[in-house]
Design brief:
Layout: H1 2-10, E1 17-24, H2 49-59, E2 62-65, H3 69-86, E3 88-92, E4 102-106, H4 111-116, H5 119-122, E5 130-133, E6 136-137, E7 140-141, E8 143-147, H6 150-165, E9 175-177, E10 183-187, H7 216-227, E11 232-234, H8 247-260, E12 266-270, H9 275-278, H10 290-306, E13 312-315, H11 332-343, E14 349-353, H12 368-373, E15 384-389, E16 412-418, H13 434-442, H14 454-458, E17 469-473, H15 488-500, H16 506-517, H17 522-543, H18 573-577, E18 583-584, H19 601-608, H20 618-621, E19 624-625, H21 636-660, H22 667-699, H23 714-719
Parallel strand pairs: 2-4, 4-8, 10-11, 10-17, 11-12, 12-13, 13-14, 14-15, 15-16, 16-17
Antiparallel strand pairs: 1-2, 1-3, 5-8, 5-9, 6-7, 18-19
The structure holds 4-O-methyl-alpha-D-glucopyranuronic acid.
Length: 735
């Protein structure tokens, strides 16, 4: 990655960038991907020499027809990528090649593009969309990548390079693409001391001690994000520190914003609600207090003086001990609007989180956000987006979609996914989240009849919101492979691709990522993609099958702890599974907490009825007797045990699949994944054995045929402890 970025920088002073093919030298270049630092942008030369020749003949020489720092980046990227993918060396030269094969630019920057595309053809694509076309110009088939803006041209260039990295032919390339949501944002839960809350990939990328001095890593981060369309980054933890809003830190934030800007990425910060007191010297943070409002206005004006394109604030208020408007008996709308009013003159937004906790322990934790926020629909300013986690609890391996989606038609709603796998095996377990993300996006809320998917709420097409966005809690850190494991990179990638276009399938994204990251070898691709696609159901099965939730260790969230009981009941696994001698599961029907009532009638009825609720959500909504028969004809106990076993078996199958592709990818990345799969298999057994033994103390039933007996006593599993917040939490004593 470094060489490419250096290349882009060295060209930045040129008024026009013309790239000319000077010499041909077929043969693979050495793309050092071994550690995974290159992510999906390694630009491995094809093994198919004919394809490389085709790329050279169809795309070279090329011209990036525009002047700006973003166009410099486009030039550098295309140059380095095409050198590798065609096996031809280029040098930069002026004047431009007389007959370019590839032209990149905007209507404004390029007369060629103006002559091919009418303004009306590009306009609907907005600021970020692009087209790729292959018109005949003077009898030659020319590839053009055109957009309304420089950043759109950057996105289009990455899209073209994706095709080439997948070894696809380029003789009939036609693509029109525009993102379905406006703000595609990574939320970093990074602290100013460089620890990362729920981060499993080393320290924070942001080196506050050396900023505003910048480093190459920031450029590489921006480049990777731009390649998948991510256009925003919240630098700091939602459990916020007001110091980031002081002049000293704002200068550091501005330095990062300067690096990210040409990549189309805006910087956002988390705003601690009590900042007016902590760094402003006021005695209150009451959002209706005139001095508090003036303080926020002045602070925001100060931010925009050094960061003119600052995106806005993300706020966690009155949740898990964070301060908020309710401390002053004000509503969430009052709190959000105070900040929104300060940001509005600068076109900034507030992303206000719906993840709230009341101080009193509720009868049902999952009902709170809906109960708290739906009465506020219509009260938020137009530059407030309500940011809601994908499910009503907390990033579990599987949850039903959050009932707030669609329930606030007068409010802009963002979805928040968690890319870092806090509850899904953190760095070591191979779990491809593309499947989880798209399952939620495709879920039908029925709020406006069939087809009212979560995705259509989020992109505004269902209820007409114009502020739209998707956030992903970042899994990125200082590790050389960025994300703690090779396969966690796929989750960053999948988030970006789905934020751009939620109609993409998890399978097609896995296929793209595999080809770009590892290989185009068809057998290896099939094998890896298959592993990825079964991995999410595997983790659900060996952790929380049939709608179970939150039965993991109470602080680290890593291993099983269904027995755990904390002073705060709604942080305790026993609160969620409700196992007793009769059965297991949380009754959320009308006879229980009635959380089902928060869904639109067709969904509510489906979940409430034992005969229609899907098995995958059964224990989320119902308390079911151990010996009750499920749809399969098996008892709940047998079904539960078989799901746990299936989880273990799937991981074992993934191990076999991975071993079968040895030699198809580099040994270093092969070995890391191989070793992590061994950890995953061991820990899948740990989950199965610990949970089933614990539940057996209630059910008193034998394990069905096909389920391996536990290796240790229950007290053995209960004694295992995982340290909190350690860089790589590991639990000693696992079999
Ligand atoms: C940033 C969960 C996590 C917390 C996180 C919180 C949130 O509770 O365990 O670490 O805090 O969600 O999303 O605010």
């Amino acid at each position: 990655m470094e060489s490419r970025a250096r290349c882009a920088r060295s060209r930045s002073s040129r008024p026009h960038i013309w790239l000319l093919v000077l010499l041909a030298s077929l043969g693979p270049s050495s793309a050092g991907h071994a550690q995974g630092y290159q992510l999906w942008l390694g630009y491995r030369p094809s093994r198919n020499l004919a394809r490389m020749r085709e790329y050279a003949a169809s795309l070279l020489p090329m011209v990036v027809d525009g002047q700006s720092s973003t166009f410099d980046i486009v030039s550098g990227e295309l140059h380095d990528a095409l050198e590798s993918l065609t096996g031809r060396d280029f040098v930069l030269s002026r004047p431009p090649p007389p007959k370019p094969q590839l032209v990149v630019g905007t209507r404004e920057s390029s007369s060629t593009i103006r002559s091919i595309l009418a303004a009306g053809e590009l306009a609907p694509l907005g600021t970020d969309g692009f087209v790729i076309r292959q018109p005949l110009i003077e009898g030659r088939r020319v590839t053009i990548v055109a957009a309304n803006t420089d950043v759109g041209a950057l996105y289009g260039s990455f899209a073209l390079l994706r095709e080439l990295q997948m070894d696809r032919p380029v003789d009939s390339l036609v693509m029109t693409s525009a993102p379905r949501v406006k703000r595609r944002i990574l939320d970093h839960w990074d602290n100013l001391d460089r620890t990362v809350e729920r981060g499993y990939a080393g320290r924070s990328l942001w080196d506050w001690a050396t900023l505003p001095a910048t480093s190459r890593r920031y450029v590489d981060y921006a480049r990777a994000n731009a390649s998948i369309g991510i256009n925003g980054t919240v630098l700091t933890n939602v459990n916020a520190n007001a110091r980031v809003l002081t002049p000293e830190y704002l200068a550091k934030v501005a330095a990062l914003a300067n690096v990210f800007r040409p990549y189309g990425i805006k910087v956002y910060l988390t705003a601690r609600f009590s900042a007016p007191i902590e760094i402003g010297g006021l005695t209150t943070a009451d959002p209706l207090d005139a001095k508090v409002r003036a303080w926020w206005r002045a602070k925001v004006d100060e931010i925009y003086r050094s960061i003119p394109d600052f995106g806005g604030f993300l706020v966690k208020a009155n949740s898990e001990g964070q301060p908020g408007p309710q401390d002053y008996h004000r509503s969430h709308a009052d709190g959000a609007n105070a900040l929104a009013d300060a940001l509005a003159p600068h076109h900034g937004v507030v992303m206000w989180r719906a993840f709230v906790y009341s101080n009193a322990v509720p009868t049902d934790r999952v009902k709170q956000a809906y109960d708290e926020f739906t009465p506020l629909d219509g009260q938020f300013r137009s530059n407030v987006l309500l940011q809601t986690k994908n499910g009503p609890l907390d990033f579990q391996p599987r949850e039903p979609f959050h009932p707030l989606f669609g329930a606030m038609p007068k409010t802009a709603q963002m979805i928040e996914f968690q890319i870092t796998k806090e509850y899904l095996g953190e760095d070591t377990h191979l779990v491809y989240l593309g499947s989880l993300f798209s399952e939620v996006l495709k879920a039908d809320t029925y709020v406006r009849g069939p087809g009212s998917t979560v995705a259509r709420v989020i992109d505004g097409s269902l209820q007409g919101q114009t502020e739209t966005g998707m956030a992903g809690v970042s899994n990125i850190g200082s590790d050389s492979n960025w994300t703690g494991s090779q396969f966690n990179q796929a989750n960053w990638y999948a988030f970006g691709r789905l934020a751009w276009d939620h109609t993409l399938t998890a399978a097609s994204i896995a296929d793209e990522w595999t080809r770009m990251t590892f290989t185009n070898d068809p057998v290896a691709v099939r094998t890896i993609v298959h592993m990825m696609l079964v991995s999410r159901e595997a983790v659900v099965n060996y952790m929380t099958p049939l709608g179970l939730a939150h039965i993991m260790g109470t602080t680290h969230h890593y291993g099983p702890a269904p027995w755990a009981k904390l002073a705060r009941a709604d942080w305790s696994p026993v609160y969620y599974h409700r196992a007793d001698s009769a059965g297991v599961g949380f009754d959320r029907t009308a006879e229980g907490s009635n959380a089902v009532a928060q869904y639109a009638p067709p969904v509510r009825n489906r979940y409430a009825d034992r005969s229609t609720v899907p098995d995958s959500s059964l224990l989320w909504f119902h308390h079911v007797g151990w010996s009750e028969r499920l749809r399969s004809g098996r008892t709940l106990w047998d079904e539960l045990a078989l799901h746990y076993q299936a989880g273990v078996d799937t991981v074992r199958a993934m191990q076999r699949e991975w071993n079968s592709i040895r030699g198809s990818i580099d040994e270093q990345r092969f070995t890391q994944t191989h070793d992590y799969l061994a950890i995953q298999e061991r820990e899948a057994r740990w989950w199965r054995d610990a949970v089933l033994q614990y539940f057996q103390t209630f059910s008193h039933l034998p394990l069905p045929a096909g389920v391996e007996p536990p290796a240790h006593s229950l007290s053995y599993y209960m004694a295992i402890r995982c340290p909190r917040d350690e860089h790589k939490p590991r639990c000693d004593g696992i079999p």
